[in-house]
Amino acid sequence: MGGQEPEDDRDMQFTFDAPLWRWQGEAAWHFISLPEDVTDEIEDSPVVRHGFGSVRVSVQVGLTSWSTSVFPDKSRGTFILPVKKLVRQRERLAEGDVVHVSLTTID
Q: 4 lies in a domain?
């Protein structure tokens, strides 16, 4: 973990490397699972939860930044970060690539 200071004292920032994986189903959704220690810190924080237990975040991968939400995945025991096609194309990411992620909670 590390990096820039978050914009709000309640926001938390994390930096980590994790593989990009594809959801096994009809849709071609791609995700990155947050490391367990990052998930634990988010779960233990007073961050605001939204629909389905999601947490709003700001993300940077390479030169691409976007806002989205991370969602709890009970089967993996962690939060998962959706990575949309536009980001994968801009950053030339493919399933199985290890991705360097900077993530900040924004609520």
A: no
